[in-house]
Structure formats: structure tokens, C-alpha cells
Amino acid sequence: MDNGMTFYQCLQSRGADEIPSVPSGFNTTEKLANTLDQFCVLYNVTPALLLSNSRQHHFCELRQLCWFLCYTRLRLTHVLIGRIFNRHHSTVIHGIDRVQKLMDTEPVLKDHINSIDLWV
């Protein structure tokens, strides 16, 4: 995946069969991808890196934060988030739980996540 691609273009580059359908609350997959593009801009990371298999700590944390926002704010299921990010749903559950536990112990993170809602 090219670094200059949008989130939707990254999903398209996987192939037409691999673009997951979104719940009825969203009009199009592009709308979801635009929201995720805004997340990428906020954290200065490319969609390709967010979708990659990289295990670098920084990217793992950003990916888990993105999953948390998709689950809590966009109301996507664990399975759908897993399909979007090419991960097993149990990996997504673990990542979301990890962010939730960090929020419980770190009030600064909780405030930060609430401020993301205003931006994204």
C-alpha cells in the first residue's frame, strides 16, 4: 500500500472482495473511511501503516485506540472492525479492553479520548 493513499484506497487495494460492508447507520464505506482518515491525520500516521501488520509499539497502540473509537463511538462490531483491519475479532476485543483499562487508570488518556470525539 502506498503511503499517499486514503483509508478507502487502502481497503480497495486489498481487492473488491475484501472491502467489508458497513452497518446501515453509515451510508457508504467511504464515509467510514473518511472518519478513519481524520484519525490518521490527527495522529500523523498513514492509513497503510494503521492497516499494516506492523508490531511496533507505537502503531499497535494507535491501532488499538482506533479500534476503541470504532467500537464505542461508531458502534461497529468486533467482527467488522477485525475485517476492516484484517485481524481476528478476539484480537480486537483484547485491544479495546486494553484501552479501556488504561482509561480507568490514566485520567489524562480519558480526557484525550474525549477530545478526539470533538475532532473526528
Provide a short characterization of the protein structure:
This protein is an all-alpha fold and 120 residues long. 68% of the residues lie in helices and 0% in strands.
Range of helix content: 55-70%
Low-confidence stretches: none
Largest sheet: none
Q: Which structural class matches the secondary elements?
A: mainly alpha
Anisotropy-based shape: globular
Strand percentage lies at under 5%
- Following the backbone from N to C, one meets helices and strands in this order, namely HHHHHHH
Alpha-carbon distance between the two ends: 24 Å
Rounded to the nearest angstrom, the radius of gyration is: 14 Å
* Arithmetic mean of pLDDT: 82
DSSP strand count: 0
Task: Explain this structure.
The protein is mostly helical and 120 residues long. It is 68% helix and 0% strand. It has seven helices and no strands. The protein has helices at 7-13, 29-43, 47-51, 57-72, 78-85, 89-105, 107-119. Helix 5 packs across helix 6 and helix 6 (89-105) crosses helix 7 (107-119).
